[in-house]
Design brief:
Structural class: alpha/beta
CATH class of the largest domain: Alpha Beta
CATH topology of the largest domain: Rossmann fold
Radius of gyration: 24 Å
CATH superfamily of the largest domain: Response regulator
Number of helices: 9
CATH architecture of the largest domain: 3-Layer(aba) Sandwich
Shape: elongated
Length: 207
């Protein structure tokens, strides 16, 4: 289960709980950073690798559930595993609907915690790869001219070169050349590949 540069953040106002979770996390080769409060967590240095957050539900001031909501509002994406000594069904439902990976009631088994951490880190890794892919596609898309953007948008709808030429008021040979530029710049190996890229970018005819 060892993750290169993976970090598990822990927010709990009980030092004994923080230390216990940190010990479990480190026992499988993961890095752990513990915090007494949400404010302390927010002041940390950013982490580059995959990470997740072990979050106590009941904290002084802002509750764990409210903090989850604040993170979402601030567009801060991090998989959360909730831990609590006072769990109930409505609380669990609220956390899960808001995207929590797991909701563990103290005392919980070490393996249950590690399983939840594993799922959370995998979720974060997948999300990071997706964000990287989208970023690269956007960079490629920005290299297209306005007309090439228009051609791409029409190609992915299944239109033929002559149909695109008629719609754009140009000739078929010109569209063929522009279509080739689009395929090369977007690094698309086929029209199907280009369609998938367009879906991920959610592009329109205008750039």
């Amino acid at each position: 289960m060892t993750e290169d540069r993976a970090t598990v953040f822990v927010i709990d106002d009980d030092v004994s709980v923080r230390d216990a979770i940190e010990g479990v996390v480190k026992s499988v080769g993961l890095r752990a950073q513990t915090f007494e409060s949400t404010q302390e967590f927010l002041s940390r240095s950013p982490s580059d690798g995959p990470n997740c957050l072990i979050l106590d539900v009941r904290l002084p001031g802002l509750s764990g559930l409210d903090f989850q909501h604040e993170l979402t509002r601030a567009n801060i994406s991090i998989p959360i595993v909730f831990v609590t000594g006072y769990g109930d069904i409505p609380m669990t439902v609220r956390a899960t609907k808001a995207g929590a990976i797991e909701f563990l009631t103290k005392p919980f088994r070490d393996q249950d915690l590690l399983d939840a951490i594993g799922r959370a880190l995998e979720t974060d890794r997948t999300a990071r790869l997706k964000r990287t892919e989208i970023s690269m596609l956007r960079q490629r898309f920005q290299t297209l001219t306005v007309r090439e953007c228009q051609v791409m948008a029409l190609v992915v709808t299944g239109k033929l070169n002559r149909e695109i030429a008629a719609e754009l008021g140009t000739v078929e040979i010109t569209v063929k050349v522009q279509r080739g530029h689009v395929m090369r710049k977007m690094q698309a190996e086929s029209v199907i590949d280009l369609v998938r890229m367009a879906e991920k970018l959610d592009i329109s005819v205008s750039k």
